[in-house]
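Blackboard transcription, Thursday session:
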Amino acid sequence: KQEVTQIPAALSVPEGENLVLNCSFTDSAIYNLQWFRQDPGKGLTSLLLIQSSQREQTSGRLNASLDKSSGRSTLYIAASQPGDSATYLCAGRGGTYKYIFGTGTRLKVLA
Amino acid sequence: DAGITQSPRYKITETGRQVTLMCHQTWSHSYMFWYRQDLGHGLRLIYYSAAADITDKGEVPDGYVVSRSKTENFPLTLESATRSQTSVYFCASSATGGAGEKLFFGSGTQLSVL
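(Written on the board underneath:)
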Protein backbone atom coordinates (compact mmCIF):
# COMPACT_ATOMS: atom_id res chain seq x y z
CA LYS A 1 0.00 0.00 0.00
CA GLN A 2 1.35 3.37 -1.02
CA GLU A 3 2.18 5.75 1.81
CA VAL A 4 3.39 9.30 1.40
CA THR A 5 5.49 11.14 3.97
CA GLN A 6 6.22 14.85 4.00
CA ILE A 7 9.06 16.31 6.00
CA PRO A 8 9.09 18.62 7.82
CA ALA A 9 5.53 18.78 9.13
CA ALA A 10 5.95 22.47 9.87
CA LEU A 11 8.50 25.08 8.90
CA SER A 12 9.01 28.72 9.81
CA VAL A 13 11.49 30.83 7.83
CA PRO A 14 12.34 34.51 7.44
CA GLU A 15 11.27 36.28 4.29
CA GLY A 16 13.66 35.96 1.37
CA GLU A 17 14.99 32.54 2.29
CA ASN A 18 15.14 29.71 -0.24
CA LEU A 19 13.58 26.52 1.06
CA VAL A 20 12.99 22.88 0.18
CA LEU A 21 10.01 20.74 1.07
CA ASN A 22 10.34 16.97 0.87
CA CYS A 23 7.97 14.20 -0.13
CA SER A 24 8.73 10.48 -0.13
CA PHE A 25 6.81 7.41 -1.20
CA THR A 26 6.97 3.86 0.10
CA ASP A 27 6.28 2.49 -3.39
CA SER A 28 8.65 4.07 -5.91
CA ALA A 29 6.40 3.03 -8.80
CA ILE A 30 5.07 6.57 -9.17
CA TYR A 31 3.47 7.51 -12.45
CA ASN A 32 2.51 11.18 -11.99
CA LEU A 33 3.03 13.55 -9.09
CA GLN A 34 1.46 16.85 -8.12
CA TRP A 35 2.23 19.52 -5.55
CA PHE A 36 -0.62 21.52 -4.04
CA ARG A 37 -1.10 24.57 -1.87
CA GLN A 38 -3.88 24.83 0.70
CA ASP A 39 -4.79 28.01 2.55
CA PRO A 40 -6.71 27.76 5.84
CA GLY A 41 -10.36 26.88 5.31
CA LYS A 42 -9.93 26.58 1.57
CA GLY A 43 -9.63 23.88 -1.06
CA LEU A 44 -6.41 22.77 -2.68
CA THR A 45 -4.77 24.48 -5.61
CA SER A 46 -2.50 22.48 -7.90
CA LEU A 47 0.90 24.15 -8.25
CA LEU A 48 2.92 21.76 -10.36
CA LEU A 49 2.30 18.46 -12.13
CA ILE A 50 5.21 16.21 -13.02
CA GLN A 51 4.25 13.65 -15.63
CA SER A 52 5.78 10.19 -15.82
CA SER A 53 8.21 11.16 -18.58
CA GLN A 54 9.47 14.27 -16.76
CA ARG A 55 11.91 14.82 -13.94
CA GLU A 56 10.99 18.35 -12.96
CA GLN A 57 8.63 21.26 -13.51
CA THR A 58 9.02 24.96 -12.88
CA SER A 59 6.53 27.74 -12.36
CA GLY A 60 7.82 31.14 -11.35
CA ARG A 61 9.66 30.80 -8.04
CA LEU A 62 8.63 27.16 -7.66
CA ASN A 63 10.52 24.13 -8.89
CA ALA A 64 9.48 20.56 -8.27
CA SER A 65 11.56 17.50 -9.03
CA LEU A 66 10.82 13.79 -9.00
CA ASP A 67 13.33 10.98 -8.54
CA LYS A 68 11.41 7.79 -9.17
CA SER A 69 14.33 5.51 -8.36
CA SER A 70 14.44 6.78 -4.79
CA GLY A 71 10.69 7.50 -4.50
CA ARG A 72 11.29 11.13 -3.60
CA SER A 73 10.08 14.52 -4.71
CA THR A 74 11.14 17.98 -3.62
CA LEU A 75 9.48 21.37 -3.93
CA TYR A 76 11.91 24.26 -4.03
CA ILE A 77 10.62 27.74 -3.24
CA ALA A 78 12.96 30.59 -4.10
CA ALA A 79 13.02 33.93 -2.32
CA SER A 80 10.11 33.10 -0.03
CA GLN A 81 7.47 35.74 0.73
CA PRO A 82 4.85 36.05 3.48
CA GLY A 83 2.19 35.29 0.85
CA ASP A 84 3.73 31.84 0.44
CA SER A 85 2.52 30.93 3.94
CA ALA A 86 0.20 27.95 3.52
CA THR A 87 0.18 24.17 3.77
CA TYR A 88 1.88 22.36 0.89
CA LEU A 89 0.85 18.84 -0.03
CA CYS A 90 2.23 16.35 -2.49
CA ALA A 91 0.24 13.57 -4.11
CA GLY A 92 1.27 10.74 -6.39
CA ARG A 93 -0.40 7.98 -8.28
CA GLY A 94 0.59 4.65 -9.72
CA GLY A 95 -1.09 2.94 -12.66
CA THR A 96 -4.60 3.88 -11.58
CA TYR A 97 -5.93 7.40 -11.08
CA LYS A 98 -5.88 7.07 -7.29
CA TYR A 99 -3.84 10.02 -6.09
CA ILE A 100 -2.49 9.40 -2.59
CA PHE A 101 -1.68 12.47 -0.52
CA GLY A 102 0.91 13.24 2.09
CA THR A 103 -0.10 14.98 5.31
CA GLY A 104 1.51 18.23 4.24
CA THR A 105 4.07 20.75 5.37
CA ARG A 106 2.73 23.85 7.10
CA LEU A 107 4.89 26.78 6.01
CA LYS A 108 5.07 30.16 7.67
CA VAL A 109 7.18 32.90 6.12
CA LEU A 110 7.95 35.70 8.54
CA ALA A 111 8.10 39.30 7.35
CA ASP B 1 -19.46 30.27 -13.66
CA ALA B 2 -16.97 27.67 -14.78
CA GLY B 3 -15.39 25.55 -12.11
CA ILE B 4 -16.17 22.94 -9.52
CA THR B 5 -18.72 23.65 -6.83
CA GLN B 6 -19.69 21.78 -3.71
CA SER B 7 -22.84 22.11 -1.63
CA PRO B 8 -23.63 22.59 1.10
CA ARG B 9 -20.63 24.45 2.48
CA TYR B 10 -21.53 23.44 6.03
CA LYS B 11 -23.76 20.64 7.29
CA ILE B 12 -24.74 19.47 10.74
CA THR B 13 -26.58 16.20 11.08
CA GLU B 14 -27.32 13.48 13.61
CA THR B 15 -26.05 9.93 13.76
CA GLY B 16 -28.10 7.53 11.68
CA ARG B 17 -29.36 10.11 9.21
CA GLN B 18 -28.71 9.97 5.50
CA VAL B 19 -26.72 12.87 4.09
CA THR B 20 -25.86 13.70 0.50
CA LEU B 21 -23.04 16.01 -0.47
CA MET B 22 -23.19 17.48 -3.95
CA CYS B 23 -20.42 18.14 -6.45
CA HIS B 24 -20.78 19.77 -9.84
CA GLN B 25 -18.12 20.62 -12.44
CA THR B 26 -18.50 22.58 -15.64
CA TRP B 27 -15.39 21.44 -17.53
CA SER B 28 -16.71 18.03 -18.67
CA HIS B 29 -13.72 16.43 -16.95
CA SER B 30 -13.70 12.65 -17.15
CA TYR B 31 -12.41 12.02 -13.66
CA MET B 32 -14.02 13.03 -10.39
CA PHE B 33 -12.92 12.26 -6.85
CA TRP B 34 -14.14 12.47 -3.27
CA TYR B 35 -11.63 12.99 -0.47
CA ARG B 36 -12.01 13.53 3.23
CA GLN B 37 -9.53 15.58 5.22
CA ASP B 38 -8.89 14.92 8.89
CA LEU B 39 -6.21 16.14 11.26
CA GLY B 40 -3.42 13.62 11.41
CA HIS B 41 -4.59 11.73 8.34
CA GLY B 42 -4.33 14.26 5.56
CA LEU B 43 -6.54 13.71 2.54
CA ARG B 44 -7.86 10.22 2.00
CA LEU B 45 -9.61 9.06 -1.14
CA ILE B 46 -13.14 7.78 -0.62
CA TYR B 47 -14.31 7.05 -4.17
CA TYR B 48 -13.44 8.12 -7.66
CA SER B 49 -15.06 7.94 -11.07
CA ALA B 50 -13.45 7.63 -14.48
CA ALA B 51 -16.61 8.53 -16.43
CA ALA B 52 -20.38 8.49 -16.11
CA ASP B 53 -21.55 5.18 -14.64
CA ILE B 54 -17.97 4.11 -13.78
CA THR B 55 -16.94 4.34 -10.13
CA ASP B 56 -14.31 2.67 -7.97
CA LYS B 57 -13.35 2.52 -4.33
CA GLY B 58 -10.57 4.52 -2.80
CA GLU B 59 -8.81 4.07 0.54
CA VAL B 60 -11.79 4.59 2.88
CA PRO B 61 -15.06 3.71 1.08
CA ASP B 62 -16.97 2.06 3.93
CA GLY B 63 -20.18 3.88 4.87
CA TYR B 64 -20.28 5.90 1.64
CA VAL B 65 -22.14 5.51 -1.63
CA VAL B 66 -21.53 7.38 -4.89
CA SER B 67 -23.22 7.61 -8.23
CA ARG B 68 -22.44 9.34 -11.50
CA SER B 69 -25.34 9.37 -13.91
CA LYS B 70 -24.08 12.57 -15.59
CA THR B 71 -20.50 13.57 -16.33
CA GLU B 72 -20.80 16.86 -14.44
CA ASN B 73 -22.25 15.55 -11.16
CA PHE B 74 -20.77 13.25 -8.56
CA PRO B 75 -22.83 13.13 -5.35
CA LEU B 76 -21.56 11.43 -2.20
CA THR B 77 -24.08 9.85 0.17
CA LEU B 78 -23.55 8.83 3.75
CA GLU B 79 -26.26 6.23 4.15
CA SER B 80 -26.31 6.26 7.96
CA ALA B 81 -24.01 8.95 9.30
CA THR B 82 -21.66 8.16 12.18
CA ARG B 83 -19.57 10.50 14.36
CA SER B 84 -16.41 9.16 12.75
CA GLN B 85 -17.61 10.66 9.47
CA THR B 86 -17.29 14.17 10.88
CA SER B 87 -14.76 15.68 8.51
CA VAL B 88 -14.13 18.13 5.71
CA TYR B 89 -15.06 16.61 2.36
CA PHE B 90 -13.47 17.72 -0.89
CA CYS B 91 -14.55 16.95 -4.39
CA ALA B 92 -12.04 17.18 -7.25
CA SER B 93 -11.98 16.67 -10.99
CA SER B 94 -9.42 16.25 -13.72
CA ALA B 95 -9.16 15.64 -17.42
CA THR B 96 -7.51 12.48 -18.71
CA GLY B 97 -3.77 12.05 -18.85
CA GLY B 98 -0.79 14.26 -19.58
CA ALA B 99 -0.81 17.88 -18.53
CA GLY B 100 -4.60 17.74 -18.32
CA GLU B 101 -4.37 15.50 -15.31
CA LYS B 102 -4.06 18.45 -12.94
CA LEU B 103 -6.57 18.07 -10.10
CA PHE B 104 -9.05 20.88 -9.47
CA PHE B 105 -10.66 21.00 -6.05
CA GLY B 106 -13.90 22.43 -4.76
CA SER B 107 -14.04 24.58 -1.63
CA GLY B 108 -15.12 21.69 0.57
CA THR B 109 -18.05 20.72 2.76
CA GLN B 110 -17.55 20.78 6.50
CA LEU B 111 -19.73 18.00 7.92
CA SER B 112 -20.45 17.56 11.62
CA VAL B 113 -22.24 14.43 12.80
CA LEU B 114 -23.63 14.83 16.33
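Lecturer's comment: DSSP finds no helices and eleven strands in chain A.
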